Amino acid sequence: MDRKLSNASVRSYHDHLKVLFLFLVKHNHLEKCPFGTDILPRKSKKAIIAFGKEMLDDILSAAKITDEMFFNILSLLLLTGIRPKDLLRLKAGDINFRERKIFLRMSKTDKEIVIPISHS
């Protein structure tokens, strides 16, 4: 198998092995960790492809005509920047209609954010 590992994979394997060796040193199975201050390959940056305003308007217009619920979901995702995964985890108890707020726990940071609900 002659497949080249990505930089992210190399860094991940390195980090996991280093933790293992540090554990072995901590519990006196090894005298010294063989991992030093290695120079690791940089993480490669992937280009983010974003929709242009015109394309977003077309998508939202089509969604509004064909399926209003889908339009509302897309709008919420676009206006708040939350991930679809976080929206799927939303429960009825996370929405306070009296205070007009949505309480949402972000999956990436595990922080709770409060999204205000507009009056319109």
Average pLDDT metric: 87
The poorly predicted ranges are none
Total of helices? 4
Instruction: Compute the separation of the termini in Å.
Output: 59 Å
The main sheet orders its strands as 1-2-3
DSSP, total strands = 3
How would you characterize the largest beta sheet?
3 strands, antiparallel
Give the helices and strands as they follow along the chain. HHHHEEE
Tell me the fraction of residues in β-strands, as a range: 5-15%
Number of domains: 3
Helix and strand content put the structural class at: mainly alpha
Helix content: 40-55%
Estimate the global geometry from the Cα principal axes.
elongated
- Mind telling me the C-alpha Rg? 23 Å
Task: Please characterize this protein's 3D structure.
The protein has 120 residues and is mainly alpha-helical. It has 3 domains: 1-46, no CATH class; 50-81; 82-120, no CATH class. It contains 4 helices and 3 strands. Strands 1-2-3 form a 3-stranded antiparallel beta sheet, with no helix packed on it.
Quickly describe the structure.
The chain is 43% helix and 10% strand. With 120 residues, the chain is mainly alpha-helical.
Q: Layout of SSEs?
A:
Layout lengths: L6 H20 L26 H14 L1 H13 L3 H5 L6 E2 L4 E5 L6 E5 L4
Task: Give descriptors for this structure.
3 strands, mainly alpha, three-stranded antiparallel β-sheet, 120 residues
